[in-house]
């Protein structure tokens, strides 16, 4: 029996351009889908179709203009993310819902290994365990040891994206939202990121990913939603073995 972890009903998001006398831009409209526990769903479509808007509404970076986003939380129970108060949203972000953007946002002058160590310490690891786990994640993501003490701002785009994925791995989220996780990566780096995401799925995470890279998406997802002018339709996919 399939168990839902997320149900999106009639989701819409509009943006008002006040500098243009209140002109409205429609980010997405009447979006409906269910994500089951342990499922990986891809969202595909042209630029400007509303793919990232959906993710940001779920993560509550954007407050939806209409509709409901029902999340089935382990700790809180069934909750509508469209209307939940900020304290509950922050609690879910800390413990259950992760978001990986195309950009690495960290404190500028903290070394890469200390970024991971710090997050692990906040999650209750002792110093030795945090150090070991951080080293294992950096090795898994094929980050050269000479860069572990460097600031991530000095990294290439592909290296920064691998650090983003490493942070998601250490969080072990129930629900992970990915915005172009393989964008602008070379083939070898894509293989590393794809394997890391498959590892997360095998550990039980439910995942929604926005993709332009169809080849990578087809290796990862169970199902694709293709966006057209803010709408989406579901297409079953058969994953390609890595």
From TrEMBL:
Any Pfam family hit: ABC_tran
Keyword set, alphabetical order: ATP-binding, Nucleotide-binding, Transferase
> Where do the ABC transporter domain residues begin and end?
6-242
Q: Which SMART domains match?
A: AAA (SM00382)
Q: Which domain of life is it from?
A: Bacteria
Tell me one GO molecular function of this protein. alpha-D-ribose 1-methylphosphonate 5-triphosphate synthase activity
- What's the EC number here? 2.7.8.37
UniProt similarity note: Belongs to the ABC transporter superfamily.
- Write down what this protein is called: Alpha-D-ribose 1-methylphosphonate 5-triphosphate synthase subunit PhnL
């Amino acid at each position: 029996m399939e168990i839902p972890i997320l149900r999106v009903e009639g989701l819409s998001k509009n943006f008002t351009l006040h500098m243009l006398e209140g002109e409205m831009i429609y980010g997405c409209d009447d979006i409906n889908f269910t994500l089951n526990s342990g499922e990986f769903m891809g969202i595909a479509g042209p630029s400007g179709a509303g793919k990232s808007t959906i993710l940001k509404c779920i993560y509550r970076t954007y407050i939806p203009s209409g509709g409901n986003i029902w999340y089935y939380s382990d700790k809180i129970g069934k909750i509508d993310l469209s209307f939940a108060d900020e304290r509950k949203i922050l609690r879910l972000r800390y413990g259950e819902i992760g978001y990986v953007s195309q950009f690495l946002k960290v404190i500028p002058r903290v070394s890469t290994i200390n970024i991971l160590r710090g997050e692990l310490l906040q999650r209750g690891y002792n110093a030795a365990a945090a150090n070991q786990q951080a080293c294992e994640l950096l090795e898994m993501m094929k980050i050269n040891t000479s860069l572990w003490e460097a600031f991530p701002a000095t990294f290439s785009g592909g290296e920064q994206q691998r650090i983003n994925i490493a942070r998601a791995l250490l969080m072990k989220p129930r629900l992970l939202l990915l915005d172009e996780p393989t964008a602008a990566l070379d083939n070898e780096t894509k293989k590393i990121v794809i394997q890391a995401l498959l590892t997360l799925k095998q550990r039980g995470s439910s995942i929604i990913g926005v993709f332009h890279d169809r080849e990578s998406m087809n290796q990862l997802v169970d199902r694709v939603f293709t966006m057209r002018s803010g709408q989406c339709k579901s297409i079953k996919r058969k994953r390609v073995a890595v």
